Amino acid sequence: MKSILLHVADDPQFEGRLQGALDLARAVGGHLDCLQTRRIPAFYGAETAGFSGSATMVMQLIDLEERAAAENRERVTARLSREDVPWSWFDSMGDPAFTLVERSLLHDVILLSQPDSAGDEAGRTLAHVVTRAETPVLVMPASAHSLPLDRPVLIAWKPTTEAAKAVRAAVPLLRLASRVDVLTIDAPEEADLPPLDVAEYLSRHGISSEVHSRSSGDRSVAEALQAAAADLGSGLIVMGGYGRSRAMEFLLGGVTRRFLARTGFPLLMAH
């Protein structure tokens, strides 16, 4: 994970996102690429469509957006200049979700934030990036002050392509963990890729792990996973995200969406 893409925006979750990116870069000797995006105002070109005076308003909105972006860049770069992490800065005009996906092609991980709700902008950006980017996403809780990579890591295992991709991507971080736990919830008696296969795969990378199986009981799977992470003292959870054919699951339901809405744990997700 040498190439780290950080979404830069003036939002309440940014500090936790930035701190997670800095901790990750230090831990793996990585380089931080900061991507600041600015939206194109929705009324751009409205005057040509017959809305008198709209073009002037659009230019004013663009000017305000540029000033705000410049001020934010000055604040963030001043902060980065005091850190011991190599970094680069990129500015882009467009929807953050699409821009992050386009820019992520030659990155090992994307840093995003846990949304306040599935319908807010952070939620929509996260849903799009996780379902469209080939790059794993590290999701930082808004309340996070650090990324504790030296604590236990929990792998939420399900025999899916998404979960397997997340495990493979997490190998550099699993080497740093004090313990690796592989957890299944409501696991079937027979599965094509049981958790012991995950343990065997990790052992070939020199990583030992402990396998756990739990029942959700009268709780949801998301609630059972949250409880297990708390019991095991996890500092990071590795899990599969959404399949491409289920891109709308973030808005409509599913374990992933419900877990994101309530967890206080950093998540490494892949699809």
Which stretches are poorly predicted, pLDDT < 50 over at least 5 residues?
43-49, 244-253
**CATH T-level fold name of the largest domain:** Rossmann fold
Q: Spell out the helices and strands N to C.
A: EHEHEHEHEEHEHEHEHHE
Strand order of the largest sheet: 3-2-1-4-5-10-9-6-7-8
Secondary structure: helix percent: 25-40%
Number of alpha- plus pi-helical segments: 9
Tally of domains: 2
Largest sheet: 10 strands, mixed
What is the compact description of this entry?
By secondary structure, the protein is α/β, with parallel strands linked by helices.
Kindly describe this structure.
- By secondary structure, the chain is an alpha/beta fold.
- It contains 9 helices and 10 strands.
- Strand 1, helix 1 and strand 2 form a beta-alpha-beta unit.
- Helix 7 crosses helix 9.
Write the layout of secondary structure elements.
Elements lengths: L2 E6 L5 H15 L2 E8 L15 H27 L6 E7 L2 H8 L5 E5 L7 H12 L4 E4 L12 E4 L4 H14 L5 E6 L9 H9 L6 E5 L6 H11 L4 E5 L8 H4 L2 H8 L4 E4 L1
Parallel strand pairs: 1-2, 1-4, 2-3, 4-5, 6-7, 6-9, 7-8, 9-10
Antiparallel strand pairs: 5-10
Helix pairs in contact: 3-4, 7-9
